[in-house]
Amino acid sequence: MDSLLRARGPYAAGSDVVPWARLALIVLAGGFVYGAAMGLFGVRGLQALYSAAKVPVLLGAATIVCLPNFYVVNTLLGLRDDFGAACRAIFAAQATMAVTLAAFAPITLLSYASSDDYDFAILFNGLAFAVGTGAAQFTMQRHYRELIARNPRHRIGRVAWGVLYVFVAIQLAWVLRPFIGSLRAPTQFFRKDAWSNAYVVVFEMLGEFVSGR
Amino acid sequence: MRELLGHVDRLLRGGYTRREDLLEGRVTVASRTLATAGLVLGAVYGLFMGVFAAMRTEHPSWPQLLATMVKVPLLFLLTLVVTFPSLYVFSALSNSRLRGPDTLRLLLAAVTVNLALLASFGPVTGFFTLSTDSYPFLVILNVAFFAISGFAGLTFLRRALTTLFEAPQVDEPERDAPPPPLAADLFATSPRESPLPPMPTPTPSRSPSNVALSFAPPPDDPGRRVFRVWIVTYCVVGAQMAWILRPFIGTPGLEFSFFRPRGSNFLEALWHTLQRLFN
Is this complex scored with an ipTM above 0.85? Predict the structure, then answer.
């Protein structure tokens, strides 16, 4: 993990070998640890278990869904020779996010011990994910700096990846909710309206706001 | 199938639209291969697109899924059939180096690039199809993916046309230079970005005035002009073809039908869908 955070050894920038198994294990372990902590709001063991299972899925599934497009986009941009290195950047970023989140787990637990306010818990976890995303971007930038120096078109590939990934991840997070679990609601793996659409909800809210309803 | 994917891969990497081939007016891949690849890639996206109809609670429709698998590739190939004659005429009028069959191959190549990118969006479409029951959202999502893929296909075409019309007749490029290539070239935004070896600069000893003139960009840039005409023709026909071939997703609550009654047009329908999404 230390090598990953420092981008050294098997995780050094510049190589095109992707240590799939190790990175997947880190995402799984880090996501599990943070998920368990996240779900412990209100000290509910089952919710903690559910969240521990869901956070690694959130981190991994969005990547898998977006990967075919990333492959084609890189090929079209003429960056196929660097595809291994680009994948390495993406997976290293995901693993960094998982490690950062796991490192935040004790602080999350402390925040739960300090307050049983659900809105505060949401806000705090939002902050943890924002920090995790920042750390992931830092790792990604380390890897991409070299790639962009080699070919500036990697910038387009990175932006295309980011846009599609965020688009999918938001919906995936919506489907997989609840991660924290309101104390007023029973412990559950999915919400009743899990298979709805985050963007439609936003559009509806915007529509209501604009029409003044 | 592996061989077919190999051809698609080579096309995406620009192996079939190398500068030296285009300069000679050649596109070195069989039309049949491109058409087959287009059919397969379109069917793959159609599969993901049609899942919505098969999974919906009201009137689930497996025939709609099969119909969409057929219709997506047909949309592109029929649009090409309808527009090819006029596209070829415009190209020939502008003194393109491409003859009829090569023009067809180049257009098929652009369609295949378009469909390859569209197929790569398939898992994302599938994921949203499984996780939402909002029909207007899926319509907008699919329109967005078709538009992005279409843009990529047209960019590919524009770069190829620019090479065809703007590149002068020059000596053979350096043999030691890396193979020119890749779609990288087709997506380069400026000559500096292109991985192609730089164009040799004419020397005064070699037919001074003519060479210098041919190196300068033509004042009215026929490649760009042809592309503009093509893009307008292709997009208008493509949008209306999509309207004629609808339904692709299948409106919830309606029974399956291979075609809907004619009437209205694509842009009007898109506007109504956007209005429905916000209300």
Answer: no
pLDDT digits (tens, 9 = 90+) for B51-105: 988 887 777 788 889 999 999 999 999 999 888 887 787 777 777 777 888 888 9
Beta carbons of A72 and B134 less than 8 Å apart:
no
How far, in Å, CA of A16 to CA of A88, rounded? 7
The band of B191, judged by pLDDT with boundaries at 50, 70 and 90, is very low
Residues 6+ apart with CB under 8 A from B44: B119, B122
**Structure token digits, residue A96:** 């960094």
CB contact under 8 A, B133 and A196: yes
pLDDT of residue A206: 79
Least Cα distance to A49 among A34, A60, A39 occurs for A39
Asked if A71 contacts A2 with a C-beta cutoff of 8 angstroms, the reply is no
What is the chain B residue with the closest CA to A152?
Answer: B193
From chain B, pick out residues whose CB is under 8 angstroms from the CB of A199.
Answer: 137
Peptide bond between residue A186 and the one before it cis (omega within 30 degrees of 0): no
Determine the Cα–Cα distance for residues A53 and A33; give it in Å rounded to an integer. 9
User: In this predicted model, what pLDDT tens digit does every residue of A113-156 receive, in sequence order?
Assistant: 888 888 888 888 999 999 899 889 989 999 999 999 999 999 99
A11 has pLDDT over 60: yes
Question: What is the C-alpha to C-alpha distance for residues A48 and B258, in angstroms, rounded to an integer?
Answer: 48
Nearest to B123 among A68, A152, A174 (CB): A68
Whether A170 and chain B come into contact, CB under 8 Å, resolves to no
Model pLDDT for residues A50-100, shown as the tens digit of each residue: 999 999 999 999 999 999 999 999 999 999 889 999 999 999 999 999 999
State the smallest CA–CA distance between residue A194 and chain B in angstroms.
8
Whether residues A195 and B132 touch (CB distance < 8 A) is answered with yes
**Does the N-terminal peptide bond of residue A178 adopt cis geometry, omega within 30 degrees of 0?**
yes
A211 reaches B (C-beta below 8 A): yes
Query: Do residues B52 and B250 touch, judged by C-beta distance below 8 A?
Result: yes
* Greater model confidence, B174 or A198: A198
Please determine, for residue B203, whether its predicted confidence score (pLDDT) is greater than 60.
no
Burial A74-92 (b: 16+ CB within 10 A, else e): bbbbbbbebbebbbbbbbb
Contacts of B279 in chain A (CB under 8 A): 207, 211
Residues of B with CB under 8 A from a CB of A: 9, 12-14, 113, 116-117, 119-124, 127-128, 130-134, 136-137, 152, 156, 181-188, 193, 195, 277-279
C-beta neighbour count of B274 within 10 angstroms = 15
